[in-house]
Design brief:
Elements lengths: L6 H37 L25 H32 L6 H8 L3 H7 L3 H23 L9 H18 L1 H8 L5 H25 L5 H23 L3 H36 L5
Amino acid sequence: MPQPTTPRPAATAKTTKAAAAVETTQAAEAAETTQAAATAAAKGAFGPASTAGPGRTSGAGGASGTTEAPETAKPRRRQARGERRIAQLLEAAANVFCSSGYTAASTNAIAREAGVSPGTLYQFFPNKEAIAVELGGRLLDRWRESHGAALSAASLDLPLDELLDAVLDPLFEFNHENPAFAVLMHGPDIPGQITQEFNALHDGLLTRIEELLAGFLPDTPPAELSRTAATMFAVFKAGLDLVLTHEGEERQAYITEIKKVMFGYLDPVLGEAVHCTAERRNAAPSSH
């Protein structure tokens, strides 16, 4: 006996219409995402959307060489919305990575934290690794700025205890404000791209510390400067774990203890050299 087939065409038609609607929506959102990403790539980061000059046009309708405000405003709004969504997803990812660790985190958990559907997340990032790479890149940029300021030449005129304050305080503050940094830079199973960038930055930082030490101790062999720099950085990283697990006065107390350790290690090596350097520089203006 033939099987009934009448209902199937109707169901298929409904399914086809629904799928078409979804595809249309996704295509529009994907186009918006692509435009936002293209703008970001051109700028090197997902910053504010660029605006076209008054004589610029886009698409076939731009043949006249003029652009009407209603036509240019819409793409700008779309770019800004896409960039806000990216920032929202990255903030959610940072929270999830901190609470669950990178390995246990999932795109579904990140989407829930951001208050969006997994489908929306996938319009911007294909997987968890892509999210981590983007977040890690932004944090590394901030880390460069923080360490660059902390190791500025202006701080080298200070006595050793004040020098430690000037160098360490910005670094502790940065890590406290960006807890996801430690998770992504030091945790297991981190994407290789992040690890490579961090290792390069770490090597550059050690080189900079060695250069500063050589400025105080010009006759010290390079191998000894390298060991001193590596030891200083190891003490900082170990102390950072203590600092990040405490808040308020207790957090500040641990920072003070770490500075005491660093001072006790460096004072026999640098104390007199720092003191003499500061004296020479302070006396320099009066010699004119």
